[in-house]
Amino acid sequence: MTDPLTIAGRTFESRLILGTGGAASHTDIAESITASGTELVTVALRRVNPEAEGTVLDLLEKLGVDILPNTAGCFTAEQAVRTARLAREAFETNWIKLEVIGDENSLLPDQVELLEAAETLIGEGFVVLPYTNDDPILARHLEEAGCAAIMPLAAPIGTGLGVRNPHNLAMICDQARVPVICDAGIGTASDASQAMELGCDAIMLATAVTRAEKPALMAHAMKLAVEAGHAARNAGRIPRRHLAHASTTFEGMAEL
Ligand SMILES: CC(=O)[C@@H](O)[C@H](O)COP(=O)(O)O
């Protein structure tokens, strides 16, 4: 029943993107990916050696999922651009999940450096998917710069706090003409559903699965949650009311 997701002309049946950061083992990663139904997994260039054998890359290849390289660990536009160029060579893809982190405590994006890096990379022919704050104005600037999707956070990376600012996230979704992928801060299945119900086109998450007590089971729950949230959004929810509204009218009811 779910319609496919299209990003920059590429179509995905699954609206869930996974990261592998924090996973306890390759077995956990493999079981979680299978249970989630994801087709796209993000990998930090700075954490893997594409030349080495027996890495997570071999595993992803075996599982038949596509790799989305990211610029995790970059704190300036210059570092992120350099990392993206290396990733393009190493992974033979011009897709990049662009992360430019502002500081180590919050791991929040540096908006100024992010926009600068996005503009440079788009100019070099990259398909840029930027991890950004839940700021509708910045989201608009990133879209106008030519980003293929916008990836606003639900909450800071690894916090599992869920959607902190549903109003902003809804505004970003309403105005965007490119896919909106809620990225980071998802803690459990209801958070993923909520983000989808607010209008997000997809969810990107790592910690909620990799650090769950049963990662594969949580990955399965996330799959269902993303599908449920997307279906509910498309179904058109009832308006919220302050007063009760009888589901059956009293009209024509027999007198007691
Ligand atoms: C921007 C970033 O690094 C996120 O994609 C992260 O990988 C996922 O965040 P969570 O671990 O909070 O899901």
TrEMBL record:
This is Thiazole synthase. It catalyses: [ThiS sulfur-carrier protein]-C-terminal-Gly-aminoethanethioate + 2-iminoacetate + 1-deoxy-D-xylulose 5-phosphate = [ThiS sulfur-carrier protein]-C-terminal Gly-Gly + 2-[(2R,5Z)-2-carboxy-4-methylthiazol-5(2H)-ylidene]ethyl phosphate + 2 H2O + H(+). It comes from Natronoglycomyces albus. Its EC number is 2.8.1.10. The active site is at K97. Residues 6-248 form the Thiazole synthase ThiG domain. 1-deoxy-D-xylulose 5-phosphate binds at G158, A184, G185, A206, T207. The keyword Signal does not apply.
